[in-house]
Amino acid sequence: MALTAVVRIPTRALLRPWARLRDSALGWMEPVGGVEVSTQRFGSQRVLVEPASAAGVAVMTFKNPPVNSLSLELLTELVINLEKLENDKTFRGVVLTSDCPGIFSAGLDLTEICGRNPAHYAEYWKAVQEMWLRLYLSNLMLVAAINGACPAGGCLMSLTCDYRVMADNPKYAIGLNETLLGIVAPFWFKDTLVNTIGHRASERALQLGLLFPPTEALQVGMVDRLVPEDQVQSTALSVLAQWMAIPDHARQLTKNMMRKPTADGLLKKRDEDIQNFVSFISRDSIQKSLQMYLAKLRQKKG
Ligand SMILES: CC/C=C\C/C=C\CCCC/C=C/C(=O)SCCNC(=O)CCNC(=O)[C@H](O)C(C)(C)COP(=O)(O)OP(=O)(O)OC[C@H]1O[C@@H](n2cnc3c(N)ncnc32)[C@H](O)[C@@H]1OP(=O)(O)O
Q1: Range with the lowest mean pLDDT among 5-19, 82-96, 98-112, 221-235?
Q2: Residue with CA closest to ligand 1 atom 63
């Protein structure tokens, strides 16, 4: 079924992006000559991309049941779809969210880093790096609509966004809990957290592998806003509408100035980081810890 429709945005609004917000607030919807905006839904098996009703905004929904673990396939699809959005200059902002009830993302797919061979670990880690670099340095405004549990790699993904809205449900938690699995968050996970909540809070959170319930996550600055579960996505969209009022070039240069030094830390030594990961994760003791953790997760039901 063709889902394509074309909306026309006046060129003046594209040249002055902040004018779009004002214009739409005034109820201006007249299709006049300008640039075509595709409203076609696209995406792939595990990542759905839908243009939102506000011009220039898309919602990217992860659907990798049961827990949106970051498998190699999901990571690859995420990066491809993000690139598509970035190449389509009509998009300025994206909401990242989940289709798995009660779970934003369970983080890295443990079956990708447990019981595989070194070549697979290297390929997988490169994909994790790529996901982080692309999201962290994206010119788009990214808002995470965290509608469920958000541990480890899921938390990292949300920390790459410019703003985080989380469901105010005490059943959900967010944090970098790697030490609880007997593994170590790499330096760029750590740097992303430090840039968000500061050094002291990060040191404590990382050493203890803390998973913060929403109220504590808000207090520590890991998320920016808590809302009832059914308002997470709509709030994320309204936050984006506010950010859209800022001229893109100024916001993008500012974002880059804030983030590039951190990203450069990894860009300068990607291969070394891959080698470190492969040798760390291949250790017998680490593999045993991961197997035990996975077994516990699987036993939970039994
Ligand atoms: C010196 C250093 C140098 C280099 C670096 C080296 C090291 C490594 C760094 C690696 C960084 C790692 C980052 C990570 O993200 S690791 C993953 C951490 N994730 C977690 O701890 C979350 C685990 N999951 C949960 O807590 C729960 O599943 C969750 C998300 C709260 C949902 O709970 P629930 O709804 O009850 O669902 P179940 O637990 O029953 O799970 C359903 C099903 O999914 C399987 N599963 C869960 N999580 C994962 C996962 N992350 N990967 C793969 N599979 C997962 C679970 O086993 C169940 O499977 P089943 O077969 O039983 O149906």
Answers
A1: 5-19
A2: 298
Give the separation between CA 13 and CA 221, rounded to whole angstroms: 34
For a pocket test of ligand 1, which of 191, 297, 298, 301 has the largest count of ligand atoms closer than 8 A to its C-beta? 297
Q: What distance, in Å, lies between the first and last C-alpha atoms of the chain?
A: 43
* 204 CB neighbour count, 10 Å cutoff: 12
Which structure tokens are listed for 287?
Answer: 């593999």
How far is ligand 1, taken at its centre, from the CA of residue 275, in Å?
23
For residue range 214-223, list pLDDT tens digits in order.
999 999 999 9
* pTM recorded for the entire structure: 0.89
Per residue in 97-150, pLDDT (tens digit) is 999 999 999 999 999 999 999 999 999 999 999 999 999 999 999 999 999 999
SS3 string, the chain, reads CCCCCEEEEEHHHHHCHHHHHHHHHCCCCCCCCEEEEECCCEECCCEEEEECCCCCEEEEEECCCCCCCECHHHHHHHHHHHHHHHHCCCCCEEEEEECCCEECCCCECHHHCCCCCHHHHHHHHHHHHHHHHHHHCCCCEEEEEECEEEEHHHHHHHHCCCEEEEECCCCCCEECCHHHHCCCCCHHHHHHHHHHHCHHHHHHHHHHCCCECHHHHHHHCCCCEEECHHHHHHHHHHHHHHHCCCCHHHHHHHHHHHHHHHHHHHHCCHHHHHHHHHHHHCCHHHHHHHHHHHHHHHHCCC
Give the ipTM of the model, two decimals please: 0.98
Strands 141-146 and 6-10 come out as: unpaired
